[in-house]
Amino acid sequence: MPSGSSVSGASLDLSRARFEVVYHLACPGTEVETRARDICIEQTVEFPESAIPNPEIREQIVGRILAIEALDAGRFEARIAYPVEAAGSELTQFVNLLFGNISLKPGVRLVRFEVPDALADLYPGPRFGRDGLRTLVGVTDRPLLCTAIKPMGLGPHELADLAHRLALGGIHLIKDDHGLADQVFCPFDERVALCSEAVSRANRETGGNALYLPNVTAPAGEIGRRAHFAKEAGAGGLLFCPGLAGLDAVRALAADDRLDLPILSHPAFQGGHCIHPDSGVSHGALFGQLNRMAGADATIFPNWGGRFSFTREACLDLVEGTVRPMGSIRPIFPVPAGGMRLDRVAEMCDFYGPDVILLIGGDLHANGRDLIDNCRQFSNLSQQA
Amino acid sequence: MPSGSSVSGASLDLSRARFEVVYHLACPGTEVETRARDICIEQTVEFPESAIPNPEIREQIVGRILAIEALDAGRFEARIAYPVEAAGSELTQFVNLLFGNISLKPGVRLVRFEVPDALADLYPGPRFGRDGLRTLVGVTDRPLLCTAIKPMGLGPHELADLAHRLALGGIHLIKDDHGLADQVFCPFDERVALCSEAVSRANRETGGNALYLPNVTAPAGEIGRRAHFAKEAGAGGLLFCPGLAGLDAVRALAADDRLDLPILSHPAFQGGHCIHPDSGVSHGALFGQLNRMAGADATIFPNWGGRFSFTREACLDLVEGTVRPMGSIRPIFPVPAGGMRLDRVAEMCDFYGPDVILLIGGDLHANGRDLIDNCRQFSNLSQQA
């Protein structure tokens, strides 16, 4: 009995709704059709085409090439459509369908994807987004200011003192350094209680609305507990590293009505996905679109010209991903960072415009002047631009 | 008041226990010291060295260069030690410390890491490992056989029929295709109930111990429910994609005494971390060491010479990571896969030796012969080698 003959005969009846994904392929022109067809198979049935047991699967499940277009030498853009039902209703399987197995192949890059209503309706996305976050901190029409409490090694009282002064200085979002977890020298609960109180106290002193965002990147069963502890303590938002603890954990935090807190995503351990231009995931798709689908309200990334290596073009692509139409999913803030300095604020404002969160860390401490004065200078510089 | 002066004066008092991480750097020889020093800072304090407020942090927290050695032209090996306390007791922060921010920089690759007892004791690792998995399926001293039920698009009854025949044919581990999640055309609960029953029935017929491993890669709050549903239904193990749902979720599954099931990890969406030889994470560290620390019992990867692009050397490095001494953490099985065919079984047995799980998918269906016969041929070939 050939293996196909045991199929029970039940047939697929999908909605025929498909969504479109754009890949860039680096290969000789003679191979591009085969490469695109390979993606259609690899990302869905992962099965020899000739052995697919029934025609409905071939027609309804296997990806479909919509178009292939030559870019520059040896590079092509392929648009492929997948059935909405193959992505299910879960972010984990959605990412798997977009780029699961083919992440293991060089020369293919996920560039962007379209989110029709049938998909977008499954993902509420960010709870606040750009407008909501502006309302929370009470700032319209200019960049928001962000910094981190650090360095690692300071204790909770020292960090709380820093947070207090940063809020006095006019910083809107004061986040944990992403290396602050729950170490013996700085336990999460103690740090978060003290820093939340310190920022609240500064807000009472200034009449401002600074938010403290503790890092809730944590073991699987602990993320929710820390987030709720933070909420109870009066934290104003959450910092999270989806590369370390999963993109879907962002979705779970964003969906939690009892939390009702904005989420700032941090790119730790996500570099491999994006730093090679001919493979991986584009900056716009990774830090923009996927973060938005998950529910982050702002997305930290290394700005061009800092300690890291992102190009101007990559940063612009990322910004495009934060705002590209995706059903009713809100636009989110880009947060360029990574060794930014006060002397680059004007340039950053010019490059990104007003819809940006500027993140400066160490440089607020490195000028030999008072920290609060440096924060005020940061604020002034961002308003002059 | 300079910002440093507000530090409360509390001083660090760490154990001084450090663990060692090996990186490869691609850069000119004139830059290698600076690059290594940069890693020491970036992965810990992420702060201008001159602004670090107290000497204890500089001495106890900042990474320490143990050695730098030239490899071939333009490549260097740097060994760096970090304080055990900076990694905390959580896998998320451990990975962050190893490679969080520097993943965003080209030309640095995490090659391997040492796990002293102070760290290993925090991570029980795989519940079964190689020996435990051999005991479960009752096979000593030869390769175990694995396959997937697919293609996506078949319904639960069709997949259960496949699973039954694969078990009759002598396959030891019958896993869900990693694209099977909880889609409308193949709901998780129905599939898992039927396939578990089908494999149990086959075991009663053959006297064998085939395991069915459903894919429990799922949204954050759903992983545990699916795993426990699978356990109740009689599944013999779990398939999980840490690249999609987080490495720490593997740890949570492995730590769950009520589950007590072996875990097979799948590399979906992890390609970016490893496919470029001068950046990212080595195959041994990513698929071997990190999977083991998390608690996977076997690690699927694309074999050389298949549909993907891993080299022979990468595969050998990966195998080394599955067995490298790591405290009391057990060795796990490498599972080479990705377009493997019956006509390569002898070669794979020769290359990997007996301590391997051979995974063949589509080729069991593609030979125009009976599926059960193909499975038996697979088994015979693996025993002749």
What does this protein look like?
The structure is a homodimer of 385-residue chains. Chain A is an alpha/beta fold. The first copy, chain A, folds into 2 domains: 15-120, RuBisCO large subunit, N-terminal domain (Alpha-Beta Plaits), CATH 3.30.70; 129-384, Alpha-Beta Barrel (TIM Barrel). Chain A has 15 helices and 13 strands. Chain A has helices at residues 32-42, 55-60, 91-99, 117-120, 129-137, 156-168, 188-206, 223-233, 242-245, 247-254, 271-274, 283-294, 312-323, 345-352, 371-384; strands at 18-26, 64-70, 75-83, 108-113, 144-149, 173-176, 211-213, 238-240, 263-265, 280-281, 298-302, 333-337, 357-359. In chain A, the strands form 3 sheets. In chain A, strands 2-3-1-4-10 form a 5-stranded mixed β-sheet. In chain A, β11 (298-302), α13 and β12 form a beta-alpha-beta unit. The first copy, chain A, is elongated. The model of chain A is unreliable at 1-9 (pLDDT under 50). Chains A, B: Pfam families: RuBisCO_large. Chains A, B: GO terms for molecular function: magnesium ion binding; ribulose-bisphosphate carboxylase activity. Chains A, B: Residues 134-364 form the Ribulose bisphosphate carboxylase large subunit C-terminal domain.
Key attributes of the depicted protein:
15 helices; elongated; 385 residues; 2 domains; TIM Barrel; five-stranded mixed beta sheet; disordered N terminus; homodimer; Alpha-Beta Plaits; four-stranded parallel beta sheet; 37% helix; alpha/beta
